[in-house]
């Protein structure tokens, strides 16, 4: 089914220019439709049929933040893209979309029903109310939430997109070096006493009420090049997301875009991109691989953030622990990126870049990032050449949706089962049928900390588009993946596929399940930017997932939150 070189499967004529594809400011403008190209060898690992096992059981689903959403704090307008993030605790579900957040019930010890709105919609920076500084003042978006089973805490990470005032302690422009930079604290007295999550008064629902103001003060603005940017962290003091939080702010010299926090035993790892414009004639992009001191933040003590600069690579993603089994003491965090670089128009690769990130909290000069190791995988071509491309067709409109095909998506999952340590990664690729597929990998980490490919596959059972995926691995080693599904004549919705640990390599053996059927087309090119899975800490096997869809007649997205159980996952709590 393959031939030498790239196989051209035309769905349109021209490729994207770098400027048209990568300018956030012009992200809503029409762009040429990329040609679907498939490198030789890519089709060999395509799964071109549905799994033969029954689909995973959908055991809960409800609408989250989005069009028409109403909660105790009324309604709100929601900016596109959604930047969906989801975390699940023992009794609660927390969702963020761009610059808004909400808290829901989860059936269990405290609540009889799942999906009741307890809090929201509110600006995400409500968690920084009373903290002062940029974290309290700004609410730009891209916030991400995590629940860590290890300490039973909630973590909210929020970047600030605009520069603050000039200050004497602001960091200079960081350059690539052999050591880590220490981010200056944004507040001299941080974190201060733990502060309760701000509770705006409930809002009545008058007949015909319109949504409230949109969240945030602009997105990816063009600020004056003066003061620093900020990265904001809030860590709860208990498993109750409505309780108290320690808050931290750290200063950055460049815009800390697209954070994707990961929980590790020695820190919270947060990679960011500094934006999509060239920094110099030789530096295409600068990625900041950062980590904050988890142990001190959990105790509300003064903590530091360290960052290592990596240039001319794709968006980074750090391994995020599923479950409670820890990596060995001293084990470096594993960090990955897709090969190639979109800004250099290198859309194809046959490897995944892997780094090992070791932090030394006592001596930052000993903090190191080793790599990249290039792990050979089946060749791939970024879906529609990467991010901000006119990619996925929709019925009834010429507007196509962005694929974000240049990057490994959140989360990069780490799971330890006995002596076995796995890392699961996903990204979106062109398929031989002319659509888009979910490329997925399971890597293994050996006793000497070496990383190698264990299995790989591309889920592409037809010529439609599956993209913007997010994976999880349960305590049995089963893998589940949620993703967007679309392509004319289908409006975009959300699907879920999975495999059991005992299945043959490279196959998602469970038939595709449907979380949400799309009912309308979106008139903006940006779609989600990312979504998220979460493992339920109550049984360590139920897989939660959130994604966008449009209701009939709607002009903007709704979100659907759902929980799936695979065979062997008990229906009762542990």
What report would you give on this structure?
The chain has 574 residues and is mostly beta strands. It has one domain. Helices cover 3% and strands 39% of the residues. The strands form seven sheets. Strands 3-26-25-24-23-19-20-21-22 form a nine-stranded mixed β-sheet, with no helix packed on it. Strands 9-10-13-14-12 form a five-stranded antiparallel β-sheet. A five-stranded antiparallel β-sheet has the order 11-18-17-16-15. A hairpin with a 4-residue loop joins strand 9 and strand 10. The longest helix has 5 residues, at 18-22.
List key phrases describing it.
5-stranded antiparallel beta sheet; mainly beta; disordered N terminus
Rg from Cα: 22 Å
How many domain regions? 1
Shape type: globular
Structure summary, number of beta strands: 33
Number of helices: 3
**Structural class, please?**
mainly beta
- Major β-sheet strand ordering: 3-26-25-24-23-19-20-21-22
Largest sheet: 9 strands, mixed
Beta-strand proportion: 35-45%
Mean pLDDT, rounded to whole units? Answer: 90
**Cα-to-Cα separation, first versus last residue:** 47 Å
Share of helix among residues?
A: under 10%
List low-confidence stretches.
Answer: 1-29, 215-221
